[in-house]
Amino acid sequence: MFLERLKDFNKHIEECYYTTPNGSLDHKEALQHSVDLLHQTRDNGGIVYVVGNGGSAGIASHFHTDLLKGLEIPSQTLYDANLVTCLGNDYGYEHIFSSPLKLMIKPQDMLVAISSSGKSLNIINAANTAKEKGAKVLTMSGFDPKNPLRGLGDLNCYLSSFEYGLVEMGHFFLLHTITDYIHQCRKK
């Protein structure tokens, strides 16, 4: 079972689709574009906001930590329990990220929006808010190839699987690859 699962995972990573508003990218171009977005954000004095739900929230939190501690790129998640429950109660769960982003995100900032299904309204609203404010957006999604999140980013990473585990592991793998690549480049 483990080896078969590893083969499935490998297949989905190899077949990951990377798109921008201008078209498709290959693996190397997508990696470089993601690194360029992060460096541009840092160099312009911006903050990288990272959001997701459930398992994707754990991935978002881990990526935030890697950015802040490992790469010294200013980063933030919006997972304070008081804030999430307050905004969810008062405005609806679909606005728990977009409400604070309306006040906080700036054009020099970036949003990393992670949703396995690509249909989570709170993540879609966050991406739309970031775009409205002129910030860069990196999306990570899976499941349906026509999911609404997939077309909202300056870079979109889509895994063609309907299995939460494979999609979440894929997103985690891709984000770790980005941070590892930046570490390797800095060592050279």
Total E-strand runs:
7
Which percent range fits the helix content? 40-55%
Total helical elements: 7
Overall pLDDT level: 96
CATH structural architecture of the domain at 46-138: 3-Layer(aba) Sandwich
Order of helices and strands: HEEHEHEHHEHEEH
Over all CA atoms, what is the radius of gyration? 16 Å
Terminal-residue CA separation: 39 Å
**Quaternary structure classification:** single chain
**Shape, per Cα inertia axes:** globular
Keywords for this structure?
single chain; 188 residues; alpha/beta; Rossmann fold; seven-stranded mixed β-sheet; 7 helices; 7 strands; globular
Question: What does this protein look like?
Answer:
The chain is of the alpha/beta class and 188 residues long. It has a domain at 46-138: 3-Layer(aba) Sandwich (Rossmann fold). Helices cover 53% and strands 15% of the residues. It has a seven-stranded mixed sheet with strand order 2-1-7-6-5-3-4, with helices on both faces. The N and C termini lie far apart (39 Å).
